[in-house]
Write a structure and sequence with these properties.
CATH architecture: 3-Layer(aba) Sandwich
CATH superfamily: HUPs
Largest sheet: 5 strands, parallel
CATH class: Alpha Beta
Structural class: alpha/beta
Helix content: 40-55%
Strand order of the largest sheet: 3-2-1-4-5
Strand content: 5-15%
Radius of gyration: 17 Å
Number of strands: 5
Amino acid sequence: MPELSDTVLSLARQLWDFHLMKHVLKPVDCILALGSHDLRVADRAATLYLQGYAPLVVFSGGLGNLTQDMWTVPEADQFAAIAKRSGVPDSAILVENKSTNTGENIMFTQQLLKENGMDPLSFIVVQKPYMERRSYATFMNWWPEKELLVTSPQLSLEEYPSDEIPMERVINIMVGDLQRIKVYPDKGFQIPQEIPDDVWSAWEQLVALGFNKHLIKD
């Protein structure tokens, strides 16, 4: 396992800060919580609903790359259960539990809303902190006519790791996600995002230090 030195954490913080969109939230038509291994995303979505940011919450996610070996219950179903326990009523919740990646999150949510006769014009997407930018780029690729804000659990890099997702794994995933931000626009998966030179340099250094477990395999 690569050493988690002060240098590594400083490089990781550059990626973390880039992944955050830092959007200022305002009321919208729909909150869309994208499923993952991080159940705190559900808490954030529920809190935003209870604070009056939107009248509808969609939870989207089946079992994806990181959760298929962890759980048997789809991500969206677990998220919805957390929201209900927090006080979000059933009538305000829709569940899409088949998607396995971010693109499918968006496309399957489009289908679900259409089936329910709904066409929200504005969204708050809730994701993990280091997935904010990639979620934004993916959503705007597949649904460019919508108004979008992105947010996540309000945690720093140092606060984020847990027993289930230690710091080393967080850094590996961030490195992989930055690579995807760079290459996925050419594949038609995302809109382009300009990556500052210092952020890409930090990425290169982290890869050289061994944080390569989540890179795209050729």
